């Protein structure tokens, strides 16, 4: 299987510093989700999520990273995506997760949209110390 080392499945990290890095993260996410056999619709959800999280890093924190990792349990295989930055953080996470909320004058579908696209969503933020967002998309194992 792609993305394995001798020790097992290795996470893939894409450092986000420029808009080109956002494109790279999306391409790697497409490769991962395709290799894992996600449906076309779920691949689009995964790529949209990676794009949104990468853009947020670039726009609000300037630098950070996207980590993609294959995870498994007895019934499912999944793709875990972790977005980490050391930016200003989010003062009010609950407000930021409300549909329609925006700090940039955009449509306000960012984090609330990501939460809806993925099966699991966890966020932690400390003001002036950055954000850590973990999301997972699961798929049933092929028998």
UniProtKB/TrEMBL annotation:
GO molecular-function term, one example from the UniProt record: protein serine/threonine kinase activity
Protein name in the entry: Serine/threonine-protein kinase RsbT
UniProt keyword annotations, A-Z: Kinase, Transferase
Keyword hit for Signal: no
InterPro entries tied to this protein: HATPase_C_sf, HATPase_dom
Name of the gene: rsbT_2
Enzyme type, top EC level: transferase
EC annotation from Swiss-Prot or TrEMBL: 2.7.11.1
Domain spans labelled Histidine kinase/HSP90-like ATPase: 41-142
Matching Gene3D superfamilies: Histidine kinase-like ATPase, C-terminal domain
Pfam families registered for this protein in UniProt: HATPase_c
């Amino acid at each position: 299987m792609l993305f394995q080392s001798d020790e097992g499945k290795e996470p893939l990290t894409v450092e986000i510093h420029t808009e080109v890095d956002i494109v790279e993260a999306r391409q790697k996410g497409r490769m991962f989700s395709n290799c894992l056999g996600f449906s076309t619709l779920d691949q689009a959800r995964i790529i949209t999520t990676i794009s949104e999280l990468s853009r947020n890093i670039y726009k609000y924190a300037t630098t950070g990273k996207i980590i993609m990792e294959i995870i498994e349990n007895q019934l499912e295989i999944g793709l875990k995506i972790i977005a980490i930055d050391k930016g200003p953080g989010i003062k009010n996470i609950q407000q930021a997760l409300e549909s329609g909320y925006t700090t940039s004058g955009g449509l306000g579908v960012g984090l609330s949209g990501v939460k809806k696209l993925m099966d699991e969503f966890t966020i932690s933020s400390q003001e002036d110390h950055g954000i850590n967002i973990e999301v997972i998309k699961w798929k049933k194992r092929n028998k």
